[in-house]
C-alpha cells in the first residue's frame, strides 16, 4: 500500500466559504420563483423571513467581487429548486436558470471555482402540497429531473456538486420538509421512509451525472457528529456508538456503500420504523459511488445511556427553535441522551454548545478510514451577534479563534494521512440563520441589516475576512 503522508495543506487546497439560496438570496417570488418550504413557516415574532435575506439575488456581482478580494478558491452555494421549477416539476423557469448562469459566470470570471449544492433545505412547497414531498417516491423522479436540468445546463462549467445538504439534521426536525405527525412513532416511521427516498434520489442523480458530466465530481453533504461516551461505562460507549450509527453512518453507508449499517437497521426493525425498500434500491445505491464526501461540522456530542422512558417526547417545539425543545433533538429515548462534556469549553450559548476542534480532526480521520474517499468540509463556522462599531469595524475575534483552531485540526488530520481537499467557512456573509434570523451571524462579511430593519444592506468585511485572506494567501502556513 502506498501511504502518502502530507505535511501541509496541498498547494491546490480549495479555500472556500459557503452560503445557501434561501438564506442569502431574497427575491423570494421574483422572476417566476415558486415558494419553498423555507418560505412558508411564519417566523417567530421579531425574526425576519426569506423575502429579502441578504439580497444576494440583486447584489451577487458585488458579493463575488468581495469573494475575489478575499482570495476564495471556491464558493459553495445552493440552487433554489423552486426558482428553477416553481412547481417542483413540469415547466422550467428560464429566468431562474439564468440567475445561476450569471452567478456561475461571474465566479469563473474571478477565478473562483463554483461548488454547487443541488438542494439545501428549500424543497418546493408545491411538492409537499401535491404528494407530501419526500414521503412519496414521486419525489425521487422529480429530484432527478431537476438535477438533470442543472447538469445539462451547468455541467460544462461546474465541476463540483453536492447532492442534498444535511439530510441527517433536517430529518431530525418534524415538519422541516413540510410534513410531520404528532404521534412520535408515526413521525419516526415517516422520517425513515423520507430518508430512504432521499438516498435513492441522490444515487439516481449520481448515475445520471456520470452520463451527463463524465468529467465532474459529485458527493453527499451530511453533517457529521463526533460522539464521546460520557464515561468509561461500556453502556455509555455503546450509547455513543449508537449515536454515530444512527446520525452519521445510517446516511453515509447508504450514500457510499448502498448498505444499511446493521446496528442502525436492527434499531429500525425493532421499533417498527423500517422503510419500504423497493427491489433494486440498494443495488442502485451501490452503483452510485460518490467521488468525494463533503461534510459540515460545528461541534461534538457527549453521550450517555438513556435509562429513562423509551417514548419519544421531544416533539414539542416549533420549527427548529432549539429553545423550545424539551430535550436535545438528537436524543433517542431508551438508547442515548446527549449530556454536557466537562472537558470542552462551555460557550454559554445554546447556539454553539461546545467548541471542539479535535472532534473535527477525529471526524476527518474516521470518515477517511471508513470510506477512503477524498473529503471536503463545506460548513464550519462560529455564530455570534457581531456588532458594527462606530469606527466601521466588526471585531469578530471569536470567529478568528474558532476557524483558526479548526483549520489547525484539518492540518493535523492531513498530517495523519487523510485526503482533505478543501475547507469552506460557514458563512461567506451574514445570512438568515435557519433558527434565529439575523440576530445570529456567521459571516466573514457583515450585512448591515437587522431582523427589524433592512437598513442599507451594505457589505462590510469583518476582521475575520482580512485574517482569512492572509490564511489563503499563505496556503495555511501561518496558522
Ligand atoms: C447547518 C445548515 O446545519 O447549520 C445551515 O446547513 C445553517 O443552513 C447552519 O445555517 C447553522 O444553523 P443555524 O440554525 O444557526 O442557521
Care to describe what's here?
This protein is of the alpha/beta class. The chain has one domain: Glycosidases (TIM Barrel, Alpha-Beta Barrel). It is built from 14 helices and 13 strands. It has an eight-stranded parallel β-sheet. The chain has a three-stranded mixed β-sheet with strand order 6-8-9, covered by helices on one side. Helix 13 links the parallel strand 10 and strand 11. Helix 2 packs parallel to helix 4 and helix 12 runs parallel beside helix 13. The longest helix has 29 residues. The protein starts with 13 loop residues before the first strand and ends in a 6-residue tail after the last helix. About 3% of the residues have low confidence. The structure holds 6-O-phosphono-beta-D-glucopyranose. 6-O-phosphono-beta-D-glucopyranose binds next to loops.
Kindly state the number of beta strands: 13
CATH topology: TIM Barrel
What is the typical, i.e. mean, pLDDT? Answer: 93
Total helices: the number is 14
- What would you give as the CATH superfamily? Glycosidases
Task: Summarize this entry quickly.
The protein has 479 residues and is of the alpha/beta class. The chain is built from 14 helices and 13 strands. The protein has a single domain (14-223, 290-298, 351-473), classed as Glycosidases (TIM Barrel), CATH 3.20.20.80.
Amino acid at each position: 500500500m502506498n501511504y502518502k503522508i502530507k505535511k501541509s495543506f496541498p498547494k491546490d487546497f480549495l479555500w472556500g466559504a459557503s452560503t445557501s439560496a434561501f438564506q442569502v438570496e431574497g427575491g423570494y417570488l421574483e422572476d417566476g420563483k415558486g415558494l419553498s418550504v423555507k418560505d412558508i413557516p411564519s417566523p417567530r415574532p421579531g425574526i425576519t423571513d426569506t423575502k429579502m435575506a441578504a439580497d444576494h439575488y440583486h447584489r451577487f456581482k458585488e458579493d463575488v467581487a468581495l469573494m475575489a478580494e478575499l482570495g476564495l478558491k471556491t464558493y459553495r452555494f445552493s440552487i433554489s429548486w423552486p426558482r428553477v421549477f416553481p412547481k417542483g416539476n413540469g415547466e422550467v423557469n428560464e429566468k431562474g436558470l439564468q440567475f445561476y448562469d450569471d452567478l456561475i459566470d461571474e465566479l469563473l470570471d474571478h477565478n473562483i471555482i463554483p461548488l454547487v449544492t443541488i438542494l439545501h433545505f428549500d424543497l418546493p412547497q408545491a411538492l409537499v402540497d401535491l404528494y407530501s414531498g419526500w414521503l412519496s417516491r414521486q419525489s425521487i423522479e422529480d429530484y432527478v429531473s431537476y438535477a438533470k436540468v442543472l447538469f445539462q445546463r451547468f455541467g460544462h462549467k461546474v465541476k463540483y456538486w453536492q447532492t442534498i445538504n444535511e439530510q441527517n439534521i433536517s430529518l431530525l426536525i418534524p415538519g422541516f420538509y413540510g410534513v410531520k405527525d404528532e404521534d412520535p412513532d408515526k413521525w419516526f416511521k415517516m422520517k425513515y421512509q423520507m430518508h430512504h427516498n432521499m438516498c435513492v434520489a441522490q444515487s439516481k442523480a449520481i448515475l445520471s451525472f456520470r452520463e451527463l458530466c463524465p468529467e465532474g465530481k459529485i458527493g453527499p453533504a451530511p453533517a457529521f457528529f463526533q460522539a464521546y461516551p460520557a464515561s468509561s461505562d461500556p453502556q455509555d460507549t455503546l450509547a455513543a456508538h449508537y449515536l454515530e450509527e444512527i446520525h452519521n453512518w445510517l446516511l453515509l453507508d447508504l450514500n457510499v456503500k448502498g448498505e444499511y449499517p446493521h446496528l442502525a437497521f436492527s434499531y429500525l426493525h425493532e421499533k417498527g420504523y423500517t422503510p419500504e425498500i423497493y427491489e433494486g434500491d440498494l443495488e442502485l445505491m451501490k452503483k452510485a459511488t460518490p467521488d468525494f464526501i463533503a461534510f459540515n461540522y460545528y461541534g461534538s456530542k457527549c453521550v450517555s445511556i438513556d435509562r429513562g422512558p423509551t417514548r419519544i417526547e421531544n416533539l414539542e417545539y416549533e420549527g427548529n427553535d432549539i429553545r423550545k425543545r424539551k430535550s436535545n433533538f438528537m436524543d433517542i429515548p431508551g438508547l442515548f441522551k446527549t449530556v454536557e462534556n466537562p472537558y470542552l469549553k462551555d460557550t454559554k450559548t445554546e447556539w454553539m454548545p461546545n467548541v471542539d476542534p479535535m472532534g473535527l480532526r477525529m471526524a476527518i480521520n474516521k470518515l477517511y478510514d471508513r470510506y477512503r474517499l477524498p473529503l471536503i468540509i463545506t460548513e464550519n463556522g462560529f455564530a455570534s451577534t457581531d456588532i458594527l462599531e462606530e469606527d466601521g469595524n466588526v471585531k469578530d475575534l471569536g470567529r478568528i479563534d474558532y476557524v483558526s483552531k479548526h483549520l489547525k485540526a484539518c492540518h493535523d488530520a492531513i498530517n495523519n494521512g487523510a485526503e482533505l481537499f478543501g475547507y469552506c467557512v460557514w458563512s461567506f456573509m451574514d445570512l438568515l440563520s435557519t433558527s434565529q434570523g439575523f440576530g445570529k451571524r456567521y459571516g466573514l462579511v457583515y450585512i448591515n441589516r437587522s431582523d427589524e430593519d433592512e437598513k442599507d444592506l451594505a457589505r462590510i468585511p469583518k476582521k475575520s475576512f482580512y485574517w482569512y485572506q492572509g490564511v489563503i494567501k499563505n496556503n495555511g502556513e501561518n496558522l
